[in-house]
Amino acid sequence: MGADNATAVFEFLLIGISNYPKWRSMFFTLVLITYFSTLLGNGLIIFLIHFDAQLHTPMYFFLSNLSFLDLCYGTASMPQALVHCFSTHPYLSYPRCLTQMSVSLTLATAECLLLAAMAYDHVVAIINPLRYSVIMSRPVCVWLAATSWGTSLVLTCMLVLSLRLRFCGANVINHFVCEILSLIKLACTDTSLNELIILVTGIFTLLLPFGFILLSYLRITAAVLRIRSAQGKLKAFSTCTSHLTVVTIFYATAIFMYMKPQSKSSPDQDKFISVFYGALTHMLNPVIYSLRNENVKGAMKKVMGK
């Protein structure tokens, strides 16, 4: 935000779970378990992919990037939610609030784009298996991953720098973390332009990648249906099941949050839905991939054997 944005507010009060004091202990326990599970699960996935040479393929290269994203996303928000859970004055300074919001937006956008890149990888693997290693070469995979990270950083910078907000005293954020929609609601200036920019950004980071993923799976489905053997069809579909499950969970909640009219937004409802896509999905991702992936389970057995 520019220096011309004079503001009378220099810190924000995150009420989080304060509206539900009886739930504090349960919420703290659930977030703590979720965070440690996120660290353990995603850290294990990254280690296994690095450890087992059989997992040095494009699919697992993208999976390791996804796990690293999940680690960072969880660390950007959950420790703060834990600290503020029992705090009598859960304040966050304006610069820290802006920083946390920017980091979370960057990571969320990168995950959207990375899931689209993973869909492209599945399309090539199933539709053009003979040229898969040529098309999905190491430089191409690195370029796709770097583009996901770089594009997310650029879009987030454009979104944050485009905000022109002025706060006139209201500093209570009804959320567990600094979240852009909750922050905008505190502004005492017209925010219609900000909401439009968020909507347009959401189209590029949510709807377009999600549309690409849907088209990718339509092509995959058409290709799989042409496979004659039932075993071949099952193997092809099983390759995509984990990714499709992750996409459904992540995109469904994120699109519901950011694509619906803000006039129909409920602060309490939104903040608990955000817990689902901002915390639980990052814990579930390694579980989904490891339970349905024989190669990951095989690498885990090797590690346990040693």
UniProtKB/TrEMBL annotation:
GO terms for molecular function: G protein-coupled receptor activity; olfactory receptor activity. It is a multi-pass membrane protein. The keyword Transmembrane applies. It is found in: Cell membrane. Keywords: Cell membrane, G-protein coupled receptor, Membrane, Olfaction, Receptor, Sensory transduction, Transducer, Transmembrane, Transmembrane helix. GO terms for cellular component: plasma membrane. Residues 41-289 form the G-protein coupled receptors family 1 profile domain. The chain crosses the membrane at residues 26-48, 60-78, 98-120, 140-161, 196-215, 236-259, 271-291. It holds the Pfam family 7tm_4. InterPro entries: GPCR_Rhodpsn, GPCR_Rhodpsn_7TM, Olfact_rcpt. It comes from the Eukaryota. Belongs to the G-protein coupled receptor 1 family. This is Olfactory receptor 13H1. It comes from Octodon degus (Degu).
